[in-house]
Amino acid sequence: MKKINLELTEKQYQTLVESVFLGTWMVNSTKMELDEDFEEIRELVLSKYKEAELEDKISYQEAFEVYDLHTDYEKHLFEKYVDEYEEFSFWDMLIEKLSEKRLKEEYGDISVPLSDEMIERRLQIEEELGKELEERGLTNLELK
User: Fold this and answer.
1) 33 C-beta neighbours (distance < 10 Å), count
2) What is the pTM of this model?
3) Which residues have C-beta within 8 Å of that of residue 82, sequence separation ≥ 6?
4) In this predicted model, what pLDDT tens digit does every residue of 114-127 receive, in sequence order?
5) How many Cα atoms occupy the beta-carbon half-sphere of 107 within 13 Å?
6) What is the pLDDT of residue 143?
7) Which long-range contacts (CB under 8 A, 24 or more apart) does 31-34 make?
8) Angle at the Cα of 58 (from 8 to 5), degrees rounded to 5?
9) What is the DSSP code (8-state) at residue 22?
10) Could you tell me which residues are beta bridge partners of residue 12?
11) For residues 77 and 67, is the Cβ–Cβ distance under 8 A?
């Protein structure tokens, strides 16, 4: 198998570490067993931490034979990227699901692909729901 070599600055390497950590977390966060392909890449990337002088952010855990981010660095990445993503995607998915529900109420069974009229109506519903949720948050939301 052909090997690929990369030359990175320390800053680029740190960005790669963060990207790999976040990607691996996303892939594995919902699984009972880790995705070994992602874990293999994570280990490979993190193993070069000393070359980039990132001992203050990454270390080798001999007991488990894995490279790992320090807890405070991991927490920083979650606060910087994951929390914001989850907040955004929550509202986005909520609007999407509520508009789909309302569309089904108005049109009955929805066929795929949606007609032009249904697409236009869905966008209108999403805009209405987005404005309402932005103005009132969850206080006006009803569950039946």
Assistant:
1) 6
2) 0.74
3) 22, 25
4) 889 999 999 999 99
5) 19
6) 67
7) none
8) 25
9) H
10) none
11) no
**Residue among 63, 29, 65, 31 at smallest CA distance from 47:** 65
The rounded percent of the chain whose pLDDT value lies above 90 is 78
Token pair, residue 122, equals: 């869905």
Integer Cα distance of 72 and 19 in angstroms: 17
Specify the DSSP class assigned to residue 115.
Answer: P
Q: What is the dihedral of CA 29, 34, 36, 41, to 10 degrees?
A: 40
46: which residues sit within 8 A by CB, 6+ positions away?
Answer: 17, 20, 58, 67, 68, 69
Report the sign of the C-alpha dihedral through residues 76, 80, 84, 89, in that order: negative
Token output for 78: 């979650």
Helices first, then strands: H and E counts in the chain: 5, 2
Find the helix packing angle between 36-46 and 10-28, rounded to 10°: 160
Q: What's the DSSP call for residue 139? A: T
Label residues 93-102 b or e (16+ Cβ within 10 Å = b).
Answer: eebeebbeeb
Secondary structure (DSSP) of 34-97 = --HHHHHHHHHHHTTTTTTT-TTTEEEETTTTEEEE-HHHHHHHIIIIIHHHHHHHHHHHHHHH
